[in-house]
Amino acid sequence: MSETMSPFASVGLFTGAPQHEHFDRLYRMLPSSRLAASSVPHRFPDGNPVDLPPSFDFAGTTVDTEEFLHVTDTAALLVLRDGAVVHEQYRLTGGPDVQWISFSVAKSFVSALVGIAVQHGHIRSIDDPISDYIDTDPGSAYEGVRIKDVLQMSSGARWNEDYSDPASDVVRLGEALAPGGGLDRFVASAAPDVAPGTVCQYNSTDTQALGALLVRATGRSITDFMQEHLYEPLGMESDGYWLLDAAGREMAFGGVNLTARDFAKLGELYRLGGARNGTQVVPAEWVAASIVPDAPHLEWGRPVIAGENLPDGYGYQWWLIPGGLDQYSAIGVYNQWVFVSPRHGVTIVKLSATRTYGTTMGEETSYSGTHEAFLQAVATHVAATG
What we know:
- A hairpin with a 2-residue loop joins strand 9 and strand 10 (279-280).
- This protein has helices spanning 20-23, 26-29, 65-71, 105-119, 147-151, 169-175, 183-188, 204-218, 222-231, 260-271, 284-290, 363-366, 368-385; strands at 32-35, 55-58, 61-64, 74-81, 84-90, 100-101, 240-243, 256-258, 275-276, 279-280, 304-305, 308-309, 313-314, 319-320, 328-332, 336-341, 346-352.
- The longest helix has 18 residues, at 368-385.
- By secondary structure, it is α+β, with helices and mostly antiparallel strands.
- It is globular, with a radius of gyration of 19 Å.
- The protein contains 13 helices and 17 strands.
- Helix 4 (105-119) packs across helix 9.
């Protein structure tokens, strides 16, 4: 591997190559840190089993559920209603004990950790400039920008998250993981583009900047801080792993690897307002603020990725599902989903390796809109069945 080549290059991301034999073990293939299973693990109880709806509607067409699960290389599908497992299945290299790569689902974990850091006084206010805490080059994108704007993907940094473009910024970010690079340096030298707080431009470097913020503000690694404040109190059943750059910094924008059941614990935590077993793990007001668009540029249909507007809204590193509902998701490339529907009492985890993902930015290869329709259909079906 050359010093500038992304460590992901060997698996052929966004080339159409099958990925299910990589996503179950990336933490073994690449440098990683370990999160130890909780000393008091929580196992979700079993509820009354519910079959999936045989089909669902998307964009005026009927989609066969089994074909959809197949074509999106589904590895895990876990459905909870009121905290109990009502549907669970594994395919390909997935399994109940398999730690799967989350990609950008990790962003929502980072957001929770920032909220906890504020609660504990490590961060004075999210109205502070993030450059009060992290290194930034003079005139660079994060100099003087509010932490809140970074949380809302509204830093104003120049960015192109086009996975199908080998010269895009997101590809360069992957290369920063390699020897000779460095994620902190990538953040510090990011270039500005538009005024902060005016455009929600999906940008993985914004989350990496939040990762640097956590490390500087707490004086601890992300792994260590998460172990104490999320992993242990949520009762995580299995060890987890964070992917690291060559200098040992966590890949905050997408490097956490967990089992499906442990991913679900974050969704359940937010569904219940940040509390678990009577303990407030994440402040309730932080959870509430995380899942609403509080400015026009965050409203449904306004966020931008690779130059295109998306139908979703955006909060604090959570996607807000369109349609005027209270549903929200943590979403990662290749179709990793933690979907939460409080009105139905439902949390769904879907882990995937959709081989066509990123070969174009269209629905025909990403299946992003199809996933939202599927998850909403499952939530409605489970609520009606129960």
